[in-house]
């Protein structure tokens, strides 16, 4: 997943001083952003009001889009550093290829997890012969300092564990939910889960009081802690809960994102997560000169060019504006 903004704003985030220990119900606004040739995404994180949820630092929701007569997702090769990308589909297919030589078609219910570590490049596209509807989410997880220079890696998990009962059916994408652990590699305490609620259901989902959480509605109109959420909504919930009340009048699905508040201060710019202006500038230079990130083979088209750096130095600051 790439940030295709030609003038990306630097985003400074991290640190725990702005995290309240009390539950909140903060609806975060979305920004429509073009992605490739024919895909529009709703960018929900980072935003004006909030930059991170645990280690989750980037959230895009897209679709359902009718792409029967369209090319669908077409994101040319681009670099990443200091983060993990999480690809999650509700409908359609996405073909992933990267500079490690990975080539994998992702389908609904399958996790594509790419750990960029010190440097990787990848491309994402709808296959030439693809389903008529595309619907999913693309997310980033910031890597803590101890692991952000790790070797790059690609994981594909075709099957993931589930938590069922009490009116819910939850797929544990990353981390741990109600004692069930995902096999996906995680470098900080977090959770990512896809939760379905049938029409007329209500439930109380156990959560950890020291995690901060948010709910991203994928379909239907789930009610999370008393707040009704139309598709594409992101509700920030804060910390301090031991359970999360859920209900739905229609068949609904949402993603639960959470984790320990990310203590380290970081700076995000374009497709990089770093700790200083100098580090981001070096990553941009390395991508521009063709070093360090490797080559993505097989994509029909040129790689993305890095935007110009802003005229002021990038500095890591707090989690909220």
UniProtKB/TrEMBL annotation:
One of its GO terms (molecular function) is metal ion binding. Its cofactor is Fe cation. Residues 48-141 form the Pirin N-terminal domain. InterPro entries: Pirin, Pirin_C_dom, Pirin_N_dom, RmlC-like_jellyroll, RmlC_Cupin_sf. Keywords: Iron, Metal-binding. Binds 1 Fe cation per subunit. Residues 193-292 form the Pirin C-terminal domain. Fe cation binds at residues 78, 80, 122, 124. It comes from the Bacteria. Belongs to the pirin family. This is Pirin family protein. It comes from Streptomyces morookaense. The lineage of its organism: Bacteria, Bacillati, Actinomycetota, Actinomycetes, Kitasatosporales.
């Amino acid at each position: 997943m790439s940030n295709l903004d030609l003038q990306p704003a630097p985003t400074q985030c991290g640190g725990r001083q702005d995290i309240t220990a009390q539950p909140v119900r903060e609806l975060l606004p979305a920004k429509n952003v073009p992605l490739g040739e024919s895909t529009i995404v709703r960018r929900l994180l980072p935003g004006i009001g909030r930059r991170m949820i645990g280690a989750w630092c980037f959230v895009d929701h897209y679709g359902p889009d009718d792409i029967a007569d369209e090319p669908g997702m077409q994101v040319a090769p681009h670099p990443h550093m200091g983060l993990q990308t999480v690809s999650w589909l509700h409908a359609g297919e996405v073909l992933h290829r990267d500079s490690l030589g990975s080539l994998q078609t992702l389908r609904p219910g399958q996790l594509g997890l790419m750990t960029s570590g010190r440097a990787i490049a990848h491309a994402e596209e709808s296959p030439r012969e693809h389903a008529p509807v595309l619907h999913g989410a693309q997310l980033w997880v910031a890597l803590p300092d101890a692991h952000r220079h790790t070797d790059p890696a690609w994981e594909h998990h075709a099957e993931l564990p589930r938590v069922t009962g009490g009116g819910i059916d939850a797929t544990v994408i990353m981390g741990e939910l109600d004692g069930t652990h995902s096999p996906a590699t995680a470098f900080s305490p977090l959770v990512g889960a896809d939760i379905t609620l049938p029409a007329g259901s209500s439930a109380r989902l156990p959560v950890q009081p020291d995690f901060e959480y948010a709910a991203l509605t994928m379909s239907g109109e789930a009610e999370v802690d008393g707040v009704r959420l139309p598709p594409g909504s992101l509700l920030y919930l804060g910390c301090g809960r031991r359970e999360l009340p859920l209900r739905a009048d229609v068949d609904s699905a949402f993603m639960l994102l959470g984790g320990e508040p990310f203590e380290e201060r970081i700076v995000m710019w374009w497709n990089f997560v770093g700790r200083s202006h100098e580090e981001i500038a070096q990553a941009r230079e390395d991508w521009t000169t063709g070093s360090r990130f490797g080559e993505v083979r097989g994509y029909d088209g040129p790689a993305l060019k890095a935007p110009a750096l802003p005229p002021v130095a990038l500095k890591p600051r707090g989690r909220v504006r």
